[in-house]
Amino acid sequence: MEKKPVDRRTFLTYLGTGATALAAATSGLGVLTEKANAQSDSLMRMKPRKKGFKFHPIAPTDKDELVLPRGYKYEVIASYGDVINKKGDTFGYNNDFTMYFPIEDSSEHGLLWVNHEYTNPLYVEGEKKGDKYTAAQIEKMLYNQGGSIIEVQVKNGKWTLNKDSELARRVFFT
Q1: Sign of dihedral through CA atoms 56, 97, 23, 141?
Q2: Using CA atoms, how far apart are residues 28 and 44, in angstroms rounded to an integer?
Q3: pTM of the model
Q4: Which superkingdom (predicted)?
């Protein structure tokens, strides 16, 4: 692939294309399957129970750590730069939206869409050339914006990432 400098117009076109793809992806990939559609419909028609979910909120805090309500736990499944598939694609950063797609109706094995909202110039390697990023730096920023589709499964009671997945992939804008 020939490397060419990216002008402002082309870069903005990439951003616009990325925003369009992101809007399409986050508008409900579940509509692609009848079962997911039916599950969504049943969720929308749920009537709130009078005696139901007992959530104990956390108090406001200035701690620089993850604080969870009593009875909740978290597991890190993937971090920035982790390999997510056989091709060697890597997990992005600045995640803000996730959606789970069950495989064969399983609540313990499925695909997880993770949106990577934006890039951070601090993660760009190397100096700018003059006042501009190089084409390689821009490609890296565009690669890290978009999303990851990762295959996850519960093993021994913990969620795990399948790094050899044939289904996992990156959605990016280069």
Answers
A1: positive
A2: 14
A3: 0.63
A4: Bacteria
